[in-house]
């Protein structure tokens, strides 16, 4: 599988990365390990985890995905050096009172402790890409649309967070840093602070990017381009909306249950909005007319965008993994891309 240099770093990552948020919840340990083995055999060298995984987040399962990956690595001596392993420190509590006792900040000390905890669970000496999962400051995210100054509050500065990440880097515990669920302002400010104070420079931003959420193109992409930062596109299939599994029966199809149907908390997510489901049906119909699966078209579209460095896939079966990998070979013609853009004009980013 083709590999790319992530941002301005020396990290060489496969064009597809394996997201692991389902491991330890929807997929048991044996199944998760089998999927990771299959991904590596397919040429994927990039694994993305987080301290809060699996999702849906629960106190009982906090950290279990990292621990599962750690046991998998330990049973395969020599494999770790062939992989790029990423993880994330959670931002301020979003109702998860078991994460740092519900802290509404992300302090330097919390970043250092979270990294140490992740290293212990992963059973590795360093994390190749350590990311802030979401900003400490108020920003519209996870379905939020508008920035609201009234919700702004004092939090640990980006400068202090970078200094903590620098300490971890000097200690050999992390190699590079990234952000997730960030804005153009956030990316630019982190970059400027790093350059001004000789601190670690952000190499990647992990944000949602799919046919039903192209908000990256509303200015963030320019910031990424001009600063030389790579985009890790997550949820390219919009939690299954762009696979067609919800087209016929909405979230109630008993024969093809997905995350949006299995978990009540997911039914409140942006992916489950009526507008998102309707847009998904429109895009999926285009794929079927082309004679390809909706998932293949959706992934081929993300792969084709200049904005995308690596696409993070989340799978629960070997068949899904194989289909997602095969989508790298699909090319969409200009007419198809124009049809896709016309749908977007009519139903604009419903899952932003």
UniProtKB/TrEMBL annotation:
Protein name: Aldo/keto reductase
Residues covered by the NADP-dependent oxidoreductase domain: 15-343
Record keyword Protease present: no
Lineage, uppermost ranks: Bacteria, Pseudomonadati, Pseudomonadota, Betaproteobacteria, Burkholderiales
The UniProt record lists the keyword Oxidoreductase: yes
Keywords: Oxidoreductase
Pfam families: Aldo_ket_red (PF00248)
Gene3D superfamilies hit by this protein: NADP-dependent oxidoreductase domain
Superkingdom of origin organism: Bacteria
